[in-house]
Write a structure and sequence with these properties.
The protein has 150 residues and is of the alpha/beta class. The protein is 37% helix and 19% strand. α4 links the parallel β6 and β7.
């Protein structure tokens, strides 16, 4: 389990690649994208099937995002996670957040070998401040059951 300090250190940088953002505004990844933008994050969407996301240029792969982007969130299908993670490692990313449900044993091993900061099996919306709405309720429940690091 990640510590609170590890999670906060990943979230402190407000500039990140967002791999796996959907073209459908009703999908969870697109909702997260919009909420992170509202929270002040500078996002670089990555989806090879899209030209833009809400007017932001969309990149075909993580390898194409600007060089000064050093961390990202992966909301990719499990089948794509390792490939996208490898691109991020090759690009020199320092931190990766693999959204809850997107990690695989292979991707965790790859991140560990690369020595990057990794948060996984957590929903970013339960930690990106301010936490509000349904995410605040989920966080409250997770705290009760010991799933939120102290």
């Amino acid at each position: 389990m990640n510590t609170k300090d590890e999670i906060e250190s990943v979230l402190n940088s407000k500039k990140l690649a967002f791999a796996g953002v959907s073209g459908d505004p009703k999908k969870f990844s697109r909702i997260v994208y919009k909420e992170l933008k509202e929270k002040g994050y500078e996002l670089y969407p990555v989806n090879p099937k899209l030209d833009d996301v809400d007017g932001d240029k969309c990149y075909g792969s993580v390898s194409e995002v600007p060089d000064d982007v050093k961390w990202g969130i992966l909301m990719t299908p499990k089948a794509s996670t390792s490939k996208v993670l490898k691109e991020a490692i090759d690009k020199g990313f320092e931190s990766i957040w693999i959204q809850q449900g997107a990690h695989t044993p292979e991707s965790l091993e790859m991140a560990e070998k690369a020595g990057i900061k990794l948060v996984y099996n957590k929903c970013i919306m339960m930690f990106a401040s301010p936490v509000k709405g349904v995410h605040a309720f989920h966080r409250f429940l997770a705290r009760i059951f010991g799933k939120v690091p102290a």
